Amino acid sequence: MTKQPDLPEPAHADLDSMLNRKFGKEVANYFSGSPLNRVGFLRTDNVFLSAALKHPSTSFLLCNDLQPLLKKKASLAYLSYKDVESLIGDPYSKNEDELVAEFNSTTAIPQMIFLGLDERVKDALVYKDHYKGAPFFALDVTPKGSLKEAAEKLISTLESRGLSWAHGRAMDYPASE
């Protein structure tokens, strides 16, 4: 069995403070070590999201039936906007009022989440001279509804390039299996 990674150390593990004395040593959340700045307050800014979507430094993490795309057994594959443009188009080209007015619940739209900016990347997106980093998005490419053909075509193209989808753990299988 492979060795599990150590939990991250808290930022101020040795800091002596009233909080530490009263409640004990700080606990580091295992998932708190993300290199991405989530810039949550920009998630409603369509100008920012549209620029982030199309920037050359942008990376997309694709999932098919919740299984991430891999380039090797234990290495995620990231794609560019050009790779996924045929499926997603430019969903941020319209403002929220236009989107609400045109909304049709019977039309499937790609499910995409802005994950954040990786501020360690040079030559990345710069927005309002203050927010800098390579944008990351997660995109669900599970074939369904009106997106089925486009998603299947994209999946086929990716698999022909040698990429594959991670296989889930035993808990992902139906109880009958």
TrEMBL record:
It comes from the Eukaryota. InterPro entries: NAD-cap_RNA_hydrolase_NudC (IPR050241). Its cofactor is Mg(2+). GO terms for biological process: NAD+ catabolic process; NADP+ catabolic process. One of its GO terms (molecular function) is NADH pyrophosphatase activity. GO terms for cellular component: cytosol; peroxisome. Transmembrane segments: none annotated. Keywords: Hydrolase. This is Uncharacterized protein.
